[in-house]
Structure formats: C-alpha cells, structure tokens
Amino acid sequence: MFNTKYPAIITAFIFLLGSAFLVQCEQEDRSNTFEEEREELVSNMESLHSEMGEQLDELSTRIEAAGEEAGEGLVNAYEELKDDRSELERALDDVRNATEDNWAYVKSETENVFDSISSKFDEWSDDLEDMI
C-alpha cells in the first residue's frame, strides 16, 4: 500500500526546501555586504567632510584676519572648497538614502565623486600652505 511516488515527492520537496534556504542565505549575504559597504563609504565621506570643515574654518579665520588684504587666490580657494564640500554633502545624502536595488549605481557614482574631491582636497591643502 506504499505508493512508490512518495520517495520522489519527498526528495523533490527536500531539494526545493534546500534551494530556498540557499537563496535566502545568499540574499542575506548580499544585504549584509550592502550595509557594510554603505557604512564604510559613509564613514570615509564623513571623515573627509570633517577635514574639509576644519580647513574651511581655518581659512575663513585667516581671510577675516587679513581683511581686504586677503588675496583673490585665497578667497577663490575658499569658495571652491565650499563648493566641493557641498558636492560631497549631496553625495553623502545619496549614499545614506541608497537602497540595495540602486546600490551598485550609487556606489559607483559616489566613489567617483569621493575620489575626485579627495584628490582635489589633498592638492588644495598643499597649495594652501603656499598661499598662507
């Protein structure tokens, strides 16, 4: 009275259950990777944002102290740094609002912005020493 179809049905069920478990685990791994990558990028961007803020504060103080004697190059450098910091803030908002679905695009675009601003900021910091 034992139907020979039962072992095949049970095997198929176990296979499907195992496959579903593996898919779920893979999705969780991708989700964890997304969260970890996003947190790391946010941390790096916040660090650069903070450094830029410190430089802006210092530069602003020096421009105010110099008054009208502040060189045009110094004022232009300050404005450029403010613009770059604003661009970094927009990119940081994009990363914070990213979803797993748009992460690849946001990450790529944001890393490009971050790398560009970071390089420019390093060069700018070196040039600032010569201006002051």
Helical content stands at over 70%
Shape category? rod-shaped
- CA-to-CA gap between the ends? 95 Å
Supply the number of structural domains: 1
| DSSP strand count | 0
Overall radius of gyration: 26 Å
Tally the helices.
3
Beta-strand percentage range: under 5%
- Average pLDDT works out at 80
Query: Structural class of the helices, strands and pairings?
Result: mainly alpha
Query: Which consecutive residue ranges, at least 5 long each, have pLDDT under 50?
Result: none
The H/E string reads HHH
Main β-sheet description: none
Structural overview:
By secondary structure, this protein is mostly helical. The protein has one domain (34-131). It is 88% helix and 0% strand. The chain contains three helices and no strands. The chain has helices at residues 5-66, 72-96, 103-131. Helix 1 runs antiparallel to helix 2, helix 1 packs parallel to helix 3 (103-131) and helix 2 runs antiparallel to helix 3. The radius of gyration is 26 Å and the shape is rod-shaped. It starts with a helix and ends with a helix. The mean pLDDT is 80.
List keywords for this structure.
88% helix; 132 residues; 3 helices; rod-shaped; mainly alpha
